[in-house]
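User: I want to check something. If I give you two sequences, will you return the structure for each one separately, not as a complex?

Assistant: Yes, each is folded on its own. Here is the first sequence with its structure:
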Amino acid sequence: MSRAFGVAAAVALLIVARARPDWLVRLIRAFDQAAEIASPRGAALYARIAPRLLGAVYRMVVEDATARVHDGETVVDLGCGPADLLAALSERLPQAHLVGVEPSEAMRHAGIARLAGVPARDVVIRDGSAEALPLPNASVDLLVSTLSAHHWRDPAAAFREIDRVLRSGGEARIYDVRFATFGPDELQRIGRSAGLRTGLLTRTVAALRLGPFHPFAVIAYRPG
């Protein structure tokens, strides 16, 4: 991606992020959910382009995780896709227990292939979704998700599951594009529907810059 194209894309993202018409958000989510990214062909293509397109996002997440995770703790990557973030986390957090959760069988196969090149560490990929996490109660210290929240079919159910699996003192950090993820008012509605205490779900602009702009948001949640 050329620098000029990146800046142009950032300008477009910023304009849409500020306007954020609901119809456009619904269109983007519907398009994403209808795309064939979960097919073997789509997963293979995504596995090739994701490191190039999302490298800066992954580096941001890894830095955030490194500041929050201690040896022996459990980190979950929800919607781990082809496992590039898991591989990066395994390099920086070699003593952590890493779990990828991915609903697409094709993506899980791509992730397993990706991790075959990583030195043997405590990292696994499991079949599951945001609405049905394959994890015990109170078993997770940090849960992260990158650019997958706008795919969730039932956000309230997803946050109930996140609340269930987080340990006391744990945290979820959901990274997504600002114009596609949940807005502040929508997020509070989701929290109420999920039965979470008011104010425990927060949305901030991520520090990562694309040109002169900040096109990503972080939704954070800590159990009350």
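And separately, the second sequence with its own structure:
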Amino acid sequence: MKTDRKSLARLLKRTKPADLRAALLDLLSGGAPTTSEITQRVVKSFRQERRGRDESVSLSVREDETLLLLTKGYSNKEIAAQLSLSVKTVEAHKANAMRKLDLTGRIAIVKYAVLQGWLDNT
């Protein structure tokens, strides 16, 4: 997503004061602030990016569970304990899912989770 300073300034001018205040407080506490409009733009960008890819990719149940737990912040070791698997097996499920979905890291996994709606109820 390409954003220049003018469009960012327009976006900030349209942001509700309460949302802007919350974003600034989040920034001051070391977070990564955002507004609903920024989030909508990012999600729209991800969806457009994924349109050209093969949407018929299917993950195994374990691959799906592994990615879901990763997006919830669990480490490979914690996922292994929860699913009664070895850490190596969790790593294999993660690698296989990432290969199938053409993902290149945890950030890409989180993007995928957003598109799947996994983070809506967290």
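Because they were folded independently, the notes below concern the second chain alone. The first helix runs from residue 5 to 14. The chain has two domains: 5-51, 61-116.
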